[in-house]
Amino acid sequence: MRAILDEYFPELEQVFKDLLGKAAKWIVRNRPFPEDILKVEAERLAEELKQASSHRVGMKRAKKLIAAAEESIGVKEGLQAARAKLMSCLDEIEFYHGQLKKTEEAMGRFLVQTGLGEYLLSIPGIGVVTAAGFLGEIGDPGRYSHWKQIQKLAGYNLVEQSSGQKRGQRSISKRGRPGLRSLLYRASITLVAKNKEFRALYHHFLTRPTNPLKKKQALVAIALKLLRVMFALIAGRKEYDPAKVLGQYREKQLSQAA
User: Fold this and answer.
1) What number is the average pLDDT over the span 46-57?
2) Which secondary structure element, helix H or strand E, spans residue 12, and what is its range?
3) Is the separation of the CB atoms in 58 and 49 below 8 Å?
4) What pLDDT score was predicted for residue 248?
5) Number of other CB atoms surrounding residue 12 within 10 Å
6) What is the pLDDT of residue 176?
7) 158 bridge partner residues
8) Residue 104 within a domain
9) Which of 34, 56, 107, 245 holds its CA 20 to 30 A away from the CA of 210?
10) What is the pLDDT of residues 203-244, one digit of tens each?
11) Does the residue 153 lie in any domain?
């Protein structure tokens, strides 16, 4: 879809950062090309955008859209075939969005059946997909007596490099389940943005006076902290407690740094 628009209306992405947002998607389906935009007055276009976006965008965006259409350098031939391709792309995108929604709903139902969902979902920043995905990757939590067993399963255990210039350096093994490793890493990115305690810990890892970590290393450290928290919650059947996440030692370190 982006390839077609880059050819016929490349300026559209300057108007809409997210081409799958409500207003942008309406435009792509109903007025995808400059000639479609320039057929209507700004007032009518603004009203169409308001209805499509539940009144989130209107006249300002309409004027910007018209200006982009007037200055467009897009191809003007073959619009009928390009329009048909766009409609096909949108139909396919909407189909997969529907499938994803059904999958997430099913994950939510199965998560409830485990009896563990409420504990994992109590962590600010953790949603159904991450919680269900975590349990799906590790299987029965009762099989594990320590969180480090899951750390090894994810390939997040540290190993020593023994070749070339990296002799004596340590890094994660990356052996085990790549899906679990990826899930924890992606969740760590979300937590750094949405979870107060994990965000503070992340910045501590980056700025601590001794052995500060690089951004990717800090995210791996956050992923391991998340793993410990998730394991503790499901093992103890407890909900997330912000006061206990960092612990007294880490709280002291953060307060001193501040």
Assistant:
1) 95
2) helix 12-15
3) yes
4) 64
5) 24
6) 86
7) 172
8) no
9) 245
10) 999 999 998 999 999 999 999 999 999 999 999 999 999 988
11) yes
Three-state secondary structure call for residue 95: helix
The answer to whether residue 209 sits within a structural domain is yes
Which residues are bridge partners to 159 per DSSP? 171
User: Mean pLDDT over all residues of the chain?
Assistant: 92
Distances (CA, A) of 78 to 13, 36, 71, 140, 201: 21, 14, 19, 57, 55
Does the pLDDT at position 199 exceed 80? Answer: yes
The whole-number pLDDT of residue 166 equals 55
Cβ count within 10 A of residue 55: 9
Which residue bears the tokens 């880059």? 6
Q: For residue 238, is it within any domain?
A: yes
Neighbours of 110 (CB within 10 A): 14
More confident residue, 97 or 245: 97
Q: Are residues 41 and 79 in the same domain?
A: yes
State how many domains the chain has: 2
Distance CA 222, CA 225 (A): 5
Same domain, 23 and 125: no
Q: At what angle do helices 22-30 and 79-114 cross, to 10 degrees?
A: 150
Residue type, 91: D
Give the DSSP letter of residue 115. Answer: T
Q: Would the pLDDT of 163 be above 70?
A: no
Range of the domain at 74: 2-98
Q: What is the pLDDT of residue 79?
A: 96
Give residues with Cβ within 8 angstroms of 205, minimum separation 6. 212, 213, 217, 218, 221, 222
Q: How many residues does the chain have?
A: 258
Give pTM, 2 decimals.
0.76
Same domain, 177 and 253: yes
Please, what is the Cα angle at 22 between 14 and 53, to 5 degrees?
Answer: 100
Q: What is the pLDDT of residue 254?
A: 63
